[in-house]
Amino acid sequence: MKALHDFTFAGITTRVVFGRGTLASTGEELARLRSHLEEIERLIDAAESARDKALIELLYGAGLRVSELVSLPLRTAPRPGQDHMIIEGKGGKERLVALGGPALAALSAHLEVRAASLPKVEAQREKAQRWLFPSASAADGKLTRRRVAQILE
Fold first, then answer.
1. Between the CA of residue 29 and those of 18, 22, 104, 108, 126, what are the distances in Å?
2. Between the CA of residue 44 and those of 29, 57, 82, 130, 146, what are the distances in Å?
3. Cα torsion for 102, 71, 85, 76, to the nearest 10°?
4. What gap in Å lies between CA 63 and CA 124, rounded to an integer?
5. Cα–Cα distance, 67 to 53 (Å, whole number)
6. Which of 76, 146, 153, 152 lies closest to 111 in space, CA to CA?
7. Distance (Å, rounded) from C-alpha 61 to C-alpha 121?
8. Cα 123 to Cα 74: distance, rounded to the nearest angstrom
9. What is the pLDDT of residues 47-81, one digit of tens each?
10. How buried is 47 (Cβ within 10 angstroms: 0-12 exposed, 13-18 middle, 19+ buried)?
11. Using 50, 70 and 90 to split pLDDT, how confident is the model at 45?
């Protein structure tokens, strides 16, 4: 598979090649891309908690699927000095996910306050402790895909 990306600025035409097709980006298309990136920045800035910011950073910054995100066990969190996570993706296959500075910072902030969001009832707490993004109310202890959708609205 062939993939070529030429990133340019200030309205200079960008040519992107994926497989057999070619897409030429105009200044107008680059402006739409900038607008999209600004929207993502606003979403991150509007996050109500460290958990929500970490969720958004991992979705957009690391390219995780929502189903992958809510199924992350706590043990997948990067250790100090690591800039990646190994996650189980589609079909049970492991993949390495690189994390940028903003995602690492948001994840670190979430981990500092994560314990406070665990359920108080011991049986529920045991289930929730296992997950990187625990839920106080879900039966299996992890945040649901529906709840992530609500956070992103």
1. 17, 15, 30, 35, 49
2. 23, 7, 23, 26, 19
3. 110
4. 30
5. 17
6. 76
7. 34
8. 18
9. 889 999 999 999 888 888 899 999 999 999 999 88
10. middle
11. confident
The single-letter DSSP state of residue 2 is: -
Token pair in block for residue 62: 């690391």
Structure confidence by residue, pLDDT tens digits, 8-19: 444 444 444 444
Q: Residue 42 and residue 117: Cα distance in Å, rounded?
A: 25
Amino acid, res. 56:
I
How far is it, in rounded angstroms, from Cα 54 to Cα 103?
7
Measured CA to CA, the distance from residue 57 to residue 64 in angstroms comes to 9
